[in-house]
Amino acid sequence: MITINENFMKLKAGYLFPEISRRVAAYQKENPQVRIIRLGIGDVTLPLPAAVIEAFHKAVAEMAEAKTFKGYGPEQGYDFLIQAVIENDFRLRGVELKANEVFISDGSKCDTGNIQEIFGLENTIAVTDPVYPVYVDTNVMAGRTGPQNSQGCYEGIVYLPCTPANQFTPEPPREPVDLIYLCYPNNPTGAVATKEALGRWVEYARANKAIILFDAAYEAFITDAAIPHSIYEIPGAKEVAIEFRSYSKTAGFTGTRCAYAVVPQELHAYTRAGEKVAVNPIWHRRQTTKFNGVSYPVQRATEAAYSAAGKRQVRALVDYYMENARIIRTSMEQFGYCVYGGVNAPYIWVKTPNGTNSWEYFDMLLKEAHVVSTPGAGFGPAGEGFLRLSAFGQKENVLEAMDRIGKLA
Amino acid sequence: MITINENFMKLKAGYLFPEISRRVAAYQKENPQVRIIRLGIGDVTLPLPAAVIEAFHKAVAEMAEAKTFKGYGPEQGYDFLIQAVIENDFRLRGVELKANEVFISDGSKCDTGNIQEIFGLENTIAVTDPVYPVYVDTNVMAGRTGPQNSQGCYEGIVYLPCTPANQFTPEPPREPVDLIYLCYPNNPTGAVATKEALGRWVEYARANKAIILFDAAYEAFITDAAIPHSIYEIPGAKEVAIEFRSYSKTAGFTGTRCAYAVVPQELHAYTRAGEKVAVNPIWHRRQTTKFNGVSYPVQRATEAAYSAAGKRQVRALVDYYMENARIIRTSMEQFGYCVYGGVNAPYIWVKTPNGTNSWEYFDMLLKEAHVVSTPGAGFGPAGEGFLRLSAFGQKENVLEAMDRIGKLA
């Protein structure tokens, strides 16, 4: 008798964003005349940079000729893209990486979802709370947790609450944990971690033989020069951290799909008997067995984001969204909301007024202002009482959304 | 202490194709003047069809304008592609599917590798032997097997030997198994399954509450009108089978990346307590949580393979490779080899002469004829004593390879 993986049945309700889509679609269906503005899901709206488009076309044209056609590429990505990553994202910030430490993929959702496969089921997971649901849900599916309790927490996961009191950057826990998901600049709170704060995590991981999974998908939005862009800017981090990067939010790749993971050669895990095992060859084996690489034209398009023109154009995209972030942050403050983030991140984290809960306030904003937000509670129990607003809209929509919300007061 | 998933350490040596690449690269390095012809890995060599290229460019151009730009798409694929799949690959063969039963992905390697995640770890796996290594290795990684024994078999997996005696299409086993991987037309043997043979598998699965994972990546190469292209042509199969399709070999997408899986609504698995659970929503949950959809331009390019021009061009590609298959098959027969396959499949399965083992014969062909084959033993113990030759080369290379092999005799 074929049995299902019963861990899936521990997952409550739908994944957050499909649930939002469902509510928005239902409301739109009942109110077809209403123009809904989406500041919910973190999806970009500006077209791909011109340099990226040009390289994309050129690579498609290569696929049309037998002489330049590309079949299977290396599962871990083409060297031209890996070298561009190493040079631009790391060497320029003083971090040296080897080519076989970079694994090109089709998305950080896949990478952060798949990475747990290479670790033992007995590991204790720690997440900040609120948290990107993929980190938690993929561990639930794998069987590293018990059921969800009434607070919405899964048994066996260590949740580290992010609150105004700790500036949404919790300290390492007192108890030992094995696998720690950190995301800075943070989705959803927009908080950043200083070098000192990350240093304490690296120190903790080294002392506890833990591994940090560092999601840096939003590093391009950092405006404060003192904030690290990579965890490898912290000495000793290569021995305890895997880093994830994405082109989704920086180069506008949410529909184009490219990202990468860095798994340093110095990184080790252990057998249950305590024997050291290098993690890099295990991830290499996982990727070569279960993945066939990113579409060649997409990899060429991505490479172009690192050209001189590409970098300028990507910078312009980031600046555009950060101007939206500024508008949202200052408008919401002006309307009397208590807001966080939006300075080094494209997300603004808004306290719902008068103790209203997240989904109620989400529904209210949808129905009264026709604005889609993301309920903080969807990111975990400590997100209750907050909303996430995303800066990835068109500026005129952001302005109109702020106008509508301003009129609610 | 962070522990590694120790199941990875049960995997022996490298994944087959990286090991071949390693040997070929080493030989080429020592003999830089030699022109090596690759009939090994099943990688296509002809450019993408013109209709595909045209649609690909058009979609890239859409990504350059805010009005037509696409961000996140549905994780399970765009409806335009799903509808084209349903109409062309199934309705035209008398099979009706619903839109939410088709899941567009970036490759059958990913799909056939990931699908096991949604089933319990206690299931018994059956594979034909020889077999595409991904089916086995992903179950080893997940922990559904014991270690590998001296014959190269993993404890706990039921291997069904494919031999000349059973025409490489083994019957269902006597013992009950839960999850059965079938691939027809078969990689690597080139064998096909008749309606009657597949019917016996469907009957077995229904009687034993088993699920069949049917890999139909090579269905376009079927030339015999009586051979089913989809397992759903067998009555009752929707209740017991998941089907995988790929554009890699048909439309030349090995470097472009698109495929799909069909998970019918009628398909059920069970809790350990025996309660029925629909599989479709579980796979939907897995995909929406761990995957972000295929690149939009790639989905548009794929759609074009179903246009009138696209279909003609894909047909021409398939015919070209099947002419290569005919050349290899008849030449090898003429040289006195015992050969199988190559009639309804792009693979020719060659018995190594005089009891030479697969890797020895692989090395001999590489060194004496400078032709890359795939050692049958790399696909499983019953592949020992065979080589796979692939028809995906350029015709002039295939002719020269045959000429070189002919001279060895």
Using the coordinates above, name the CATH class of the largest domain in chain A.
Alpha Beta
Distance between the termini of chain A: 59 Å
* Mean pLDDT level of chain A: 96
| Rg of chain A, alpha carbons | 21 Å
Shape of chain A: globular
Could you list the spans of chain A in which at least 5 consecutive residues all have pLDDT below 50?
A: none
Enter the CATH topology name of the largest domain in chain A. Answer: Aspartate Aminotransferase, domain 2
Describe the structure.
Two copies of one chain form a homodimer. By secondary structure, chain A is α/β, with parallel strands linked by helices. Chain A has two domains: 135 residues, Alpha-Beta Complex (Aspartate Aminotransferase, domain 1); 255 residues, Aspartate Aminotransferase, domain 2 (3-Layer(aba) Sandwich), CATH 3.40.640. Helices cover 35% and strands 14% of the residues of chain A. Chain A has eleven helices and 15 strands. In chain A, the strands form four sheets. Chain A has a seven-stranded mixed sheet with strand order 2-8-7-6-5-3-4, with helices on both faces. In chain A, strand 9 and strand 10 form a beta hairpin. At the A-B interface, helix 2, helix 4, helix 5, helix 7 and helix 8 of A face helix 2, helix 4, helix 5, helix 7 and helix 8 of B.
Question: Summed up, what is this model?
Answer:
With 409 residues, the first copy, chain A, is α/β, with parallel strands linked by helices. Chain A contains eleven helices and 15 strands. Chain A is 35% helix and 14% strand.
